[in-house]
Amino acid sequence: MGDVQQLYDQVDTDQDLYGDWQREDSLRARPLFTVLWLITLAVIGIMVLRMTPNGLDGKKYIPVVVAFVPWMACVSAVTLVCALIGRRRALAVVCTLCLLTQLCWHWGYIWTSDERTHELPSVSSLTGGSADRYARVMTLNTKNGLADAQQIVRTVREEHVEVLTLQEANTGLLQRLAAAGLGGVLPYSVVATPTGHDNGGVNVLYTAAKPVSTTGDLITIEASSVPSACVRMASRTVCFGSVHPFSPRPRNQGLWNSGLDSIAKLQSNARLFVLMGDFNSTWDHASFRFLLGDRFVDAGEQNGSWFHMTYPANITLFGGRVKVPSLVEIDHIVHDRSVVVGDLETVTISGSDHKALLGTLDVEG
């Protein structure tokens, strides 16, 4: 009996030690999960800002914070894994709800309901001149005209680009593009009407086909004027525009909202539009979604081919040892719903702090 009692005593001792170990482990983990709860609350706060309505989403630093909403899914996913490992049920439930909400918001980047976007011809099969229903298009913010002109022209040639829109261009860049031979590929151009609201330079548009009509100021806007060229493609006439509203910096926030609202007025215009450029806004901004309305769509958001982050580009830290990745998608191809755009890709152009965004459109999709 003595041996049996010793065995029971040993078991009790082991259980006490195991219980003490569990309590100590729980105490050690408590600060970690406190931090994870704080992170989750911050994510929820950012998600609430994402729901700020048009007109109010330009206040203070709201537009800057909201631009990073897509990355919150990564934060929620990592926190969810930690919560599951640590058996924190409440935290796991909250993280799951956050993650599901974020996936719903960005479902168009993951899966497209319009399979026509995957049926477009490859770039190599496109023919020049825009006479058929297809065209390869490209947009680039040139960072005050500092972008590499030769690389722009080389990309236009290699990608069979038939419509090119540039933002923040200046006389020096236009001269370098001409010297690099852009006129031999895209002989027709429209330069925006200069105004006192030009932000970083003027907008420019180049086409391979001769436009039916052009204008240097498509709309009244408190930003760089929007040049436009209407081009005949197959049986339709498409009106292309190069846009660049102000960025949502604190000193520009009123101009940021009004610029996007001005572009939104094109919803009532009868022409068929493809608008390209640096919109200085993302799908998560209410002002950008208001711009789209029921008429326009963002090629990136409806393509089902993931995000195409365009900003920043060519930025490094610590003397060039660390390259900053592109974090936000603020350059867009916005078009009427009857137009199909697919085959999206980004290209890094030296000298610019934006990546070029390219796509293939079908005007009779």
From TrEMBL:
Residues covered by the Endonuclease/exonuclease/phosphatase domain: 138-354
Keywords, ordered alphabetically: Endonuclease, Exonuclease, Hydrolase, Membrane, Nuclease, Transmembrane, Transmembrane helix
Transmembrane segments: 32-49, 61-84, 91-111
GO molecular function terms attached to this record: endonuclease activity; exonuclease activity
Protein name stated in the entry: Endonuclease/exonuclease/phosphatase
Organism: Bifidobacterium thermacidophilum subsp. thermacidophilum
